[in-house]
Design goal:
The complex is a heterodimer of chains A (318) and B (566).
Chain A: H1 3-12, H2 14-32, H3 50-53, H4 60-67, H5 69-88, H6 91-101, H7 106-117, H8 124-135, H9 140-147, H10 159-187, H11 191-199, H12 204-215, H13 217-229, H14 236-242, H15 254-264, H16 269-296, H17 306-317
Chain B: H1 2-25, E1 76-83, H2 96-104, E2 107-114, H3 119-128, E3 135-138, H4 142-150, H5 161-164, H6 166-174, H7 177-185, E4 191-192, E5 210-214, H8 215-221, E6 228-230, H9 231-244, E7 254-257, H10 260-269, E8 278-280, E9 286-288, H11 293-307, H12 323-328, E10 333-338, H13 342-356, H14 360-363, E11 364-370, E12 378-379, E13 387-390, H15 396-409, H16 412-420, E14 427-429, E15 435-437, H17 441-444, H18 469-472, H19 480-495, E16 502-503, H20 507-510, H21 515-519, H22 524-533, H23 538-563
Parallel strand pairs in B: 1-2, 1-3, 6-11, 7-10, 12-16
Antiparallel strand pairs in B: 3-13, 4-13, 5-10, 5-11, 8-9, 14-15
Helix pairs in contact in B: 6-15, 10-11, 10-22, 11-22
Classes of the chains: A mainly alpha (318), B alpha/beta (566).
């Protein structure tokens, strides 16, 4: 497509492109313009000189970053926690969506969906407070354990329990919300396929396995690629609110490390920018890598070719 | 429908663009920072903990002689940030004391309430982003402070300020920190708030946290009553309490109630003078306190107390200062190492009496905690807590007005008001010129200060430059038995110590600043608490921890030894 044709097409569909404009403006202002701040990783930040005026120091900050053993520890910890998330939390909304899709009573289905979705709207501070009240040594759970003659369990200070606790609370809070994406994808599956399967005598489990799951596979792949792109970002709010002095090491992910070096000791914004830049580059590389691997395995990945998408649309229209 | 779609979508798009633009360009009408708070209570934080203070006769004398430096007929409005403020409280007219000050000095004050958890962090963000309130109470941390001064992020006071506000200058000289920093920075940027003026209980100055022990329980289990205990003696008491449960508390019994910070203070800091800093050893070389044998000794005791159940198994989940209430409100703790400034003892004892129904004077032992060597361990507290700083953008008229408030509060009249309330309402002079309290807390049914008190605005917020502790030694609102006890506790700390265990400030080290030193700032409270909650041998864990920190510590040691070692 030459440039003139593209411009003509934009003019022809100007209303549609106008709707795109606020989003573009938002991205430019809040995502692209602030990127100039990344130069701080190569400067010594002086608030009075601003980001532009601060003196360049090359890779000095990165030398400090890699000298700190806590940094690499937090990197590996972040990766392990997030790999755990992919195993223990990524499939849960898919399973929930598949199961919920099988419910026939619409009112019950909606009620269940609302119950699952509600926790998403609670902040991690609230969730952590509730959790502490439930699980601390004088909490409800230990109260029940005591009632049955057992010894109380130190749930909140146990580093072995810490990670499972992260996955459980993450699922409780977010699985219902993420499930909506898969339910939307399921609703886009051609109902004729289900009718045909019914005529052929397929069981509900077979329908789910051979029709529903393949029907949402592209969505699953896209979500998986995005999750991979966040592998160096392990949920600051959740861990910050749930961890304590006993689990501080088990919970020191990269985000917490950045927070600690930025706000809990003498502030060095250049140092924390260097760490953040490192994290973003790794995330970006992993995102591209995951996309490429998915394409190699036959999936469309994050950016399906335009011609293929157009063909799909044309086929749909026909 | 399709005819409508085009104009609707255009209108919608334009609206969204305008909203985006408005959202991006909208600047807050004022610079009020978002805030959160805790209710006022005494507590401590990091390396310069506590509340306290009082003062005495200062230049200017009585209110009548005192002269402001600003035109009080002109109203000023300013923003102010302080820890322990009350969220949403009207500090201009919320109570008669607030009203008295705001009318006398003709101001309107917006207060950003900070709490112990966000105080340092918020101040760093505000100052570094150029958004600090006009006036703020800043927890002095030299590394940050040096950066703020170097970058012009806080106001430098005019060179003649000491002549213009002489009462304030007199207090400033007593703080030690102020004049020292003036030498370092070549001007005044920080106004430290003095803990003591005339009644300085020691030099070096001891800190106030003390152990509160249930005397009735001690007597029931045959534990001796003393005015000072070593950490292991306190653990022995806790063991006896755990075994015999003299208060019949049952499952809820906590032999020693602490939060993370106070637990570290009790076990580690009381055994190791330099538990959180560097120090010059006898050989003239700088060493790191985290790696000292004293620190290990404290950690071993800490670990033993945790593993044997003398501490609550989830003590690190205790927020703020709630562990103090396990002792004096719930009555489920045998002992607690807690804040004990003189000014705080009366409400603490009153709560004990009101909640447990027994006489606190007969049933509490307030004592000093010593290291295992029998000595009191501490580095000079420095006679200040919190420093007042000003925004570089503050208007001259606002700056001068606030300095007037500080200067007035440094006079005898202002100083008494900040400690006793309003003259002829809450206190007066008798025929001999002594201060007499007119306030009867029992009759009024509430204390003078605090969220539920007569004057919630009372405290650090009205420009106290001399804090409570000094006056508290003479405050008629505090029971004389408590005042005497407090004096004794302070005095004993200076007596049961050697110059090596209770040391003066090493100003070379204190004022040294470098990128390496900044990066070696460690949250020792969390680190030590984490160490003792780990499984395995505490000494082995500690050695691993020391090794893991050395890449950050060694550059600082090298710098200090090169510059000051000998």
């Amino acid at each position: 497509m030459d440039n003139n044709a593209l411009i003509r097409r934009i003019i022809r569909s100007k209303e549609t492109y106008m709707l795109l404009l606020p989003g573009v403006i938002w991205f430019v202002i809040f995502a692209y313009i602030p990127m100039y701040g990344l130069t701080l990783a190569f400067k010594t930040y002086k608030a009075n000189l601003g980001i532009f005026g601060s003196p360049w120091v090359g890779f000095e900050k990165f030398e400090y970053v890699f000298r700190d053993p806590a940094f690499m520890e937090s990197v590996w910890r972040t990766i392990w926690i997030n790999l755990g998330r992919i195993v223990f939390t990524f499939p849960v909304p898919i399973i929930l969506a598949l199961l919920l899709n099988e419910l026939r009573m619409r009112r019950f289905k909606r009620t269940v969906q609302t119950i699952f979705t509600f926790p998403h709207f609670l902040s991690w501070i609230i969730v952590a407070s509730v959790l502490i009240n439930f699980l601390d040594m004088q909490g409800m759970v230990n109260g029940i354990i005591r009632m049955f003659g057992g010894d109380p369990v130190n749930f909140l200070g146990n580093t072995t329990i810490f990670r499972p606790l992260l996955y459980i609370t993450d699922n409780w809070k977010n699985a219902g919300w993420t499930m909506i994406i898969y339910l939307a994808a399921i609703s886009g599956i051609d109902t004729e396929q289900y009718e045909s399967a019914q005529l052929d005598g397929a069981t509900r489990l077979q329908t789910m396995w051979y029709i529903t799951l393949p029907g949402i596979m592209n969505t699953i792949v896209v979500m998986l690629i995005l999750a991979t792109g966040y592998i160096m970002t392990a949920g600051f709010d959740q861990i910050f609110n749930i961890s304590n002095a006993a689990t501080a090491k088990a919970g020191e992910i990269l985000d917490i490390y950045i927070y600690r070096i930025t706000f809990q000791s003498a502030a060095d914004f250049s140092f924390s920018t260097a760490v953040s830049l490192f994290r973003s580059i790794v995330n970006f590389a992993l995102l591209l890598l995951a996309d490429r691997i998915c394409k190699m395995l036959g999936s469309e990945g994050l950016f399906p070719p335009i011609r293929k998408a157009a063909r799909a649309r044309a086929k749909g229209a026909a | 429908m399709s005819r409508l779609a085009r104009p609707v979508s255009i209108v919608l798009a334009v609206l969204l663009v305008l909203l985006s633009a408005a959202a991006c360009s909208k600047k807050s009408d004022d610079n009020k920072p978002s805030d959160s708070s805790t209710t006022p209570s005494t507590t401590q934080n990091g390396n310069n903990a506590s509340n306290s203070g009082t003062g005495t006769e200062t230049e200017g004398g009585a209110d009548g002689e005192w002269k402001p430096q600003s035109d009080l007929s002109k109203k000023v409005k300013f923003s102010y940030a302080s820890v322990q403020a009350i969220e949403g409280y009207d500090y201009t007219k919320g109570d008669p004391l607030a009203q008295y000050y705001s009318e006398k000095f003709n101001y309107e004050m917006d207060v950003a309430a900070l709490n112990w958890d966000n105080w340092n962090e918020r101040m760093r963000i505000w100052i570094n982003s150029g958004d600090m309130p006009d006036v703020a109470v800043y927890n002095y941390i030299h590394a940050d402070a040096a950066a703020f001064v170097e970058q012009g992020l806080i106001k430098r006071l005019p060179d003649d300020w000491k002549q213009r506000w002489p009462n304030l200058a007199a207090v400033y000289e007593r703080t030690t920190l102020g004049p020292q920093m003036e030498k370092v920075f070549g001007g005044t940027y920080f106004l430290p708030r003095a803990r003591f003026m005339d009644n300085l209980p020691g030099d070096p100055l001891p800190n106030h946290p003390s152990v509160f022990i249930r005397k009735d329980w001690a007597e029931a289990v045959g534990f001796p009553v003393k005015s000072a205990y070593t950490v292991s003696e306190i653990m022995e008491f806790a063991r006896l309490v755990k075994d015999k449960d003299p208060g019949n508390v049952g499952d809820k019994l906590i032999p020693i109630a602490e939060n993370t910070n106070h637990a570290v203070d009790l076990f580690v800091a009381r055994n190791s003078t330099y538990w959180n800093s560097f120090y010059k050893d006898k050989d003239g070389q700088y060493k790191w306190g985290g790696a000292s044998e004293d620190t290990l000794r404290g950690l071993k005791l800490f670990s033993e107390a945790y593993r044997s159940g003398l501490l609550a198994q989830d003590f690190y989940t205790v927020k703020n200062e709630e562990h103090g209430a396990y002792f004096n409100v719930q009555g489920i703790a045998g002992a607690t190492f807690f804040q004990a400034p003189t000014s705080n003892l009366q409400p603490y004892y009153n709560d004990f009496k009101n909640n447990l129904g027994i006489d606190p004077y007969e049933n509490i032992i307030l004592a000093t905690v010593l290291g295992e060597d029998g000595n009191y361990h501490q580095v000079d507290l420095i006679n200040y807590w919190g420093t007042i700083i000003f925004s570089p953008d503050i208007k001259d008229e606002v700056f001068e007005r606030y300095m007037d408030i500080l200067d007035y509060n440094a006079t005898r009249e202002g100083y008494i008001i900040t400690n006793m309330g309003l003259k002829d309402v809450d206190w007066t002079y008798d025929d001999s010129g002594n201060i007499v309290s007119l306030y009867d807390e029992e009759k009024e049914g509430k204390p003078l200060a605090g969220t539920t008190g007569k004057y919630p605005s009372w405290g650090y917020l009205l420009g106290s430059i001399i804090l409570f502790d000094d006056f508290a030694f003479d405050n008629p609102n505090t029971d004389e038995r408590l005042r005497e006890l407090s004096k004794k506790v302070y005095r004993e700390r200076t007596e049961i110590a050697t110059p090596e265990t209770f040391t003066a400030i090493d100003w070379d080290y204190y004022t040294y600043d470098s990128p390496s030193k900044r990066r070696a700032e460690i949250d020792y409270y969390t680190e030590y608490a984490n160490l003792i909650t780990q499984s395995g041998d505490i000494e082995e864990n500690w050695r691993k921890w020391v090794d893991s920190k050395m890449p950050l510590i060694q550059p600082v040691l090298d710098e200090l030894n090169e510059k000051f070692g000998g």
